[in-house]
Design a protein that fits this description.
The complex is a heterodimer of chains A (about 200) and B (about 425). With about 200 residues, chain A is α+β, with helices and mostly antiparallel strands. In chain A, the strands form two sheets. Chain A has a five-stranded mixed beta barrel. Chain A starts with 19 loop residues before the first strand and ends with a helix. Chain B folds into four domains: about 70 residues; about 90 residues, Nucleic acid-binding proteins (OB fold (Dihydrolipoamide Acetyltransferase, E2P)); about 80 residues, OB fold (Dihydrolipoamide Acetyltransferase, E2P), CATH 2.40.50.140; about 130 residues, Beta Barrel (OB fold (Dihydrolipoamide Acetyltransferase, E2P)). Chain B has a five-stranded mixed β-barrel. Chain B has a five-stranded mixed barrel with strand order 7-8-9-11-10. Chain B has a five-stranded mixed β-barrel with strand order 13-17-18-20-19. In chain B, strand 1 and strand 2 form a beta hairpin. Chain B is extended. The two termini of chain B are about 45 Å apart. The chains are: A alpha+beta (about 200), B alpha+beta (about 425). Chains A and B meet through strand 1, strand 5, strand 8, strand 9 and helix 3 of A and strand 13 and helix 8 of B.
Chain lengths: ~200, ~425
């Protein structure tokens, strides 16, 4: 590999890990648009959130309600993690051995914290399916779940405000891709989620 | 693509500067690039412009807009706006001269105007008049290029230099350390640390800090150079900001340094980050360190130190390397033993016990710590060095019902 910094678009020192976005299940369910940033084979893939932010990774905390082992030769696990607004579909296969072992050990129901990459699929009937490829999953307590709901509500409201103000570089793209979505919906979602905890 | 419109646009640019161009020919070239070769229209336009520039001997600039301006070289610019590849004309003051590094260089130093400063080099072959420190000059048709990632102005044989008689006032403004970028910059900062010189030609190196962060500085041995005093505050202008491996450092050899009678509350890079732990890196948990005095390197599983080889009498230690994520940015964090014990609830003694008696050994400590803290919300206090937060204190975030109520109000209020 060349040592000349100008030959490398992403320098070693300039590497930034993609942040894990905070979104509720009901917002992830609305995602319909996925894109690559750059033409490189290894360029990161992003799911565009309707609230106008790109997401290559998400952090979620909820209740693991179900897990199934699938496949014979290539074993993988699927699971459902429920938050106050809906359900995240998670999966871990042999390409994520650590995550698969972690998931294999957890017996639902449990509060879990999941770090993973969102993926968007179009089913043969044309409908969309969002799932999260797990990088890591651990059992946590209810306090962590409640903190997560506060965190996601705050960041969702921040995004809704930025969307209204038109700031943020992915806002125009979001308006183009999700012309029919009213940001007020996500304000309501945040309110309902907040209202469900500690009441 | 509307070829005639694009061709018109391009030709107008050249007609303005008195060049005769054939609109039909431009249109034909565009059409050929796009239709025959499948070139992107914007790229096609750019290559046609570049070709015309070559034809008319207009130096290629970074952007098509700059290239299209035949008079670009004579247009006066501010130093802060100069980008590598530009032909420029400045009115600027020589604020520092430094010893030329090679016989092919007649003069080198730093030029400044009210917008900023830039390094310059006068080639010996250019036969340019000698400039003197502290005087103002009008420098026409010099070239900005890049040397080690830092913009630099080259005075060549086509450059004209004329002294401006008057002494204009020039008040440089220091930048917050966190806003420094490669090039020339000034800071108002305190010397917070002095390090052992790592090279015999080095006079002094250490750490400068202000309210926004810290930066490494270096002074090389040269007649007349003096060391900075640790704990003193200085205004430093026209220092060279270098970048190496993504880290910035200040070279003070050509800088103007004034000691100040003031105190700065150095943040020390001390900052607090709140977020969730999203990854625990390998090498976390219980580790073995080299016992050789002053070494302390982490040993491999085979007790191998990269410098002192096999060390059977290693010393155990605890640490966590990981990523703390606030949803906007992910911070690389490093927790030393104290912070690790406090956060995971596993003491060094308990970890030793597990490492020596559990079938999984040191891995078991890693797994237990991971399960105890991964996915949890914590606040880390520490200083950030080279993009990594060295944590001296951290605690778990607790549920704040006041925050809950405030968020409910915010979400419900405007619906």
């Amino acid at each position: 590999m060349s040592a000349n910094p100008r030959d490398m678009p992403r320098r070693e020192g300039a590497f930034e890990r993609e942040p894990a976005r905070r979104i509720f299940a009901s917002e992830l369910r609305e995602c319909r648009y996925q894109f690559k940033d750059g033409d490189d084979e290894k360029s990161p893939t992003f799911v565009l959130l309707p609230t106008g932010e790109r997401s290559n990774r998400i952090f979620l905390v909820g209740t693991l309600t179900e897990k199934t082992r699938q496949g014979e030769q290539n074993v993988f696990y699927r699971g459902r993690v429920v938050d106050p607004t809906g359900t995240f579909f998670i999966m871990a296969g042999s390409y994520q051995p650590e995550a698969m072992q972690q998931l294999a050990k957890i017996e639902p129901p449990q509060f879990v914290a999941v770090i993973g990459k969102p993926n968007l699929y179009q089913k043969p009937d044309g409908s969309f399916m969002n799932s999260v490829r797990v990088e890591s999953i651990t059992v946590v307590d209810k306090d962590t779940r409640d903190l997560w709901v506060l965190d996601v509500a705050k960041q969702t409201l921040d995004r809704v405000d930025a969307l209204k103000a038109g700031t943020g570089k992915d806002v125009p793209k979001a308006k183009e891709q999700y012309p029919t979505i009213d940001p007020a919906v996500f304000r309501k979602i945040a309110y309902d989620a907040l209202a469900q905890i500690r009441m | 693509m509307d070829y005639s419109e694009a061709a018109d646009r391009i030709s107008r640019k050249y007609q303005k500067s008195g060049q005769a161009v054939d609109v039909k020919k431009i249109e034909g070239k565009l059409r050929r690039l796009v239709d025959e070769f499948g070139v992107q229209p914007s790229e096609a336009e750019r290559s046609v412009i570049n070709e015309l520039n070559k034809e008319f001997n207009i130096p290629a600039a970074g952007s098509p807009a700059g290239g299209g301006r035949a008079g670009g070289a004579n247009e006066q610019k501010r130093i802060a706006d100069a980008a590598p590849g530009d032909w420029v004309t400045f009115e600027a003051k020589v604020v520092a001269l430094s010893a030329p590094a090679s016989p092919s260089i007649a003069q080198s130093g730093i030029l400044a105007d009210e917008s900023g400063a830039i390094r310059f080099v006068v080639w010996a072959k250019s036969n340019a008049p000698k400039m003197s420190e502290g005087s103002w000059y009008r420098i026409e048709s010099a070239v900005v290029d890049e040397f080690k990632g830092v913009p630099s102005l080259k005075v060549h044989s086509g450059t004209t230099i004329r002294e401006i008689g008057e002494d204009r006032s020039l008040i440089p403004t220091p930048l917050p350390i966190k806003d420094l970028h490669p090039g020339i910059g000034g800071v108002r900062a305190k010397v917070v640390q002095e390090w052992d010189a790592s090279h015999e030609r080095m006079l002094q190196s250490g750490l400068l800090g202000d309210e926004t962060g810290t930066i490494k500085f270096v002074i090389w041995k040269e007649p007349g150079k003096e060391k900075l005093k640790v704990g003193a505050v200085y205004s430093i202008f026209y220092a060279q900001v270098d970048e190496f491996n993504g880290r910035l450092s200040l070279n003070l050899n050509a800088a103007t340094i004034m000691q100040e009678d003031a105190e700065i509350a150095v943040s020390g890079g001390e900052s607090a980050v709140r977020g969730a732990i999203v990854h625990i890196a390998p090498g976390s948990g219980i580790i073995k360190r080299c016992p050789v005095e002053g070494c302390n390197r982490a040993l491999s599983r085979q007790n191998y130190c990269p410098v002192h080889e096999i060390q059977p009498k290693f010393v155990y230690d605890l640490r966590i390397k990981g990523w703390l994520d606030d949803g906007e940015k992910t911070h690389n964090i490093l927790l030393q033993r104290d912070a690790t014990e406090a956060l995971t609830g596993i003491t060094l003694d308990a970890a030793k016990e597990i490492a020596e008696n559990n079938p999984l050994g040191m891995d078991e400590v890693f797994l237990r710590m991971r399960d105890a803290i991964l996915g949890r919300y914590i606040v880390c206090h520490g200083r950030e060095i080279d993009g990594r937060l060295l944590v001296n204190k951290c605690e778990k975030v607790t549920f704040d019902s006041g925050e809950h109520a405030a968020l409910l109000n915010r979400a419900g209020g405007a619906s």
